[in-house]
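Why predict the complex rather than its parts? Because the way molecules touch one another can change local conformation, and only a joint prediction can capture that. The input here totals 298 residues.
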Amino acid sequence: MEKEKKMTEQESLLIIQQMIHTAKQEQKDDGKGWILWGWLLFAASVLTYINLKTQWFSNYFFWNVFGITSLLLLLFSVVRTFFFKKIDKVKTYTAELFQKLNIGFFISLLLIIVAINRGVSPVLGFSLLLGLYGFWILIYGAGLNFKPSIIGAYITWACAFAGLFVETFDWTMVLHATAVLLGYIIPGHLANIEFKKIHEQKK
Amino acid sequence: MFKDLDPILHSQLRLAVMSLLISVKEAEFTFLREKTNATAGNLSVQIQKLKEAGYIEVIKQFKDNYPQTICKITTEGIKAFEQYVKDLQAYLTQK
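Output of the joint prediction:
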């Protein structure tokens, strides 16, 4: 940009619009978190469903595997944050809000998981988990004005409600897999496609 | 009668910097340079002017042994920007 160039009112308005649009692009998410967790949760639900029918292992074997994988991923993410994190060139209000909400989400998640292990029925416990997923998906979708996530949140809640009325854990797994597919995986991939498009345009 | 547009903001680069900063919490100097396509020298001068007007806060620090210049819009800056947009709208609707 040139030094101290005289501008018209229309040019001023155009600069404001362009720069606000540019800053908005920084708030786009690559969806990788949703894709990773979505596929892990989906695999755990589908494998548990198959396992319940075939009885290869104990009923919750794949959820235990998922738990160990999650702990390893959490450890990896903590190490990466403290030792290899790139310096952020820009901090957005939404990113800061999401960071804080993430903490709340994981604490609530832990609470439900402990409750399931302390005697809350897994059929009801998984519905509570879906309720929590729906809440986080809605905030994410609303914060980034991303419709697939907003729709995904309502579908997740519908699955959570339906889950309160099923009798057996295999149906809980079907509802869980459906919710994760429509609330995490599909919106995650769509966000990733949009993110890639924006970055290709920049090049 | 039209109100005069704020001369501090009525400049291409300064307006671009303020428009970027109003949309984010804070931004590094390199981010502003990248998005405005300005030269480092010119950007430094304009940032200094915005700082002197009290519209932005400039924080110079070291992070992981790298020097970092962070810019943040101030409350006064937000008010000035909002007023500028209002005045601009008045001009455009009257024309």
